[in-house]
Amino acid sequence: MPHLHGGMTIRDVARRAGVSVSTVSRVLNDKDDVAPETAATVRRVIEEMGYASSIAARSLRSRTTNVVGLIVPDLWHPFTSLVIRGVNQVTAAQGYDLIAYASARRNPYLMADWEVHLVAQLNGTVTDGIIVVTPNAATYRTTFPLVAIDPYQATTEYPAVIATNYQGVLEAMAYLVSLGHRRIGFIAGRSDLESAKRRLEGYLAGLAQAGIAFDPALLVTGDYTRTTGAGCAAQLLALDPPPTAIMASSDETAFGVYDVAARRGMRIPDDLSVIGFDNTLESLSVNPPLTTVDQSIEQMGVLAAELVLKLIQGQPCESRQYKVATRLVVRQSCRAIDPGS
């Protein structure tokens, strides 16, 4: 008898739906000889159990699909592109197909519901395991393998891959201080993300280690996007005196700083030093090339894929949290100044 996750069989589905096993089988295989209202009932029961009707039959027969799912907030962001590249390296090498799902939703609460619903539908039917990038939900209704990249929470019920966000910003701050900067602005990321919280803590610790008093006016909160980053940069550069350097929580945010500096006739790094965080491909092609914290995004995807495949193959994970080390990549967007300036 084929089993669903949690020890449940197709007979249990039939019993819950009030139909025969053969009826459930015909619905799973999309046969058209089942009454519409009966088929709807069976599909509802399957979905409640976390299965998608169109591919559940394949899973019931073989227990595997050889597909890994990747749930992302969008497909346009450079972070997502690098994650996909890393994940695909591993899945392709291991003979697994990769399906990516992106949402048009932007409200975090709607995103959380969408993620929970999608994981329940896909995991164990369409996919053998799922990787969720920057997950909004705290928990998911699945007993199949699931791994997160850059989760919102500090602790999770599933294995998670994160960068050493705190150490990355701390190193960047030390570099700016070594160049003579004392008035350093900081554009934080989304306040609900654990990565943003740790990067802010790195900024504050960097100030403290250098003996620089924290100035609330030099701290503004963004959302890791270029547009919002530009608005935050405009706010910082309107201060009197303005910062001599800006530490941005993402490369996209730093590009927003570049945009505002250009509009104001400021030259980077002559008039303003800028550091980003991510080391996306564009950080090398902007003018001047951006000094940034490399969080090895592609490697985060590689590690997440290795973990989910390990779980799929029945091997346990040794930890709930896996950290990928950051490193400062020095390019041409910062310069030394007289500390008294």
Task: Outline the structure in words.
The chain has helices at about 10-15, 20-30, 35-50, 55-60, 80-95, 110-120, 165-180, 195-210, 225-235, 250-265, 280-285, 295-310; strands at about 65-70, 95-100, 130-135, 145-150, 160-165, 185-190, 220, 245-250, 275-280, 290-295, 320-325, 325-330. It has about 350 residues and is an alpha/beta fold. It has 3 domains: about 5-60, lambda repressor-like DNA-binding domains (434 Repressor (Amino-terminal Domain)); about 65-160 and about 300-325, Rossmann fold (3-Layer(aba) Sandwich), CATH 3.40.50.2300; about 165-295, Rossmann fold (3-Layer(aba) Sandwich), CATH 3.40.50.2300. α1 (about 10-15) packs across α3.
Summarize the structure.
With 341 residues, the protein is an alpha/beta fold. 43% of the residues lie in helices and 16% in strands.
Biggest beta sheet attributes: 6 strands, parallel
Average pLDDT level: 88
**CATH homologous superfamily descriptor of the largest domain:** Response regulator
Could you name the CATH class of the largest domain?
Answer: Alpha Beta
Shape: elongated
Number of domains: 3
Number of helices: 12
The gyration radius over C-alpha positions equals: 24 Å
**Strand coverage percent:** 15-25%
CATH topology name of the largest domain: Rossmann fold
Head-to-tail CA distance between termini:
77 Å
Q: Give the H and E element order.
A: HHHHEHEHEEEHEHEHEHEHEHEE
The count of β-strands is: 12
Class from secondary-structure proportions: alpha/beta
Low-confidence stretches: 1-7, 51-55
Walk across the major sheet and give the strand order.
2-1-3-4-5-11
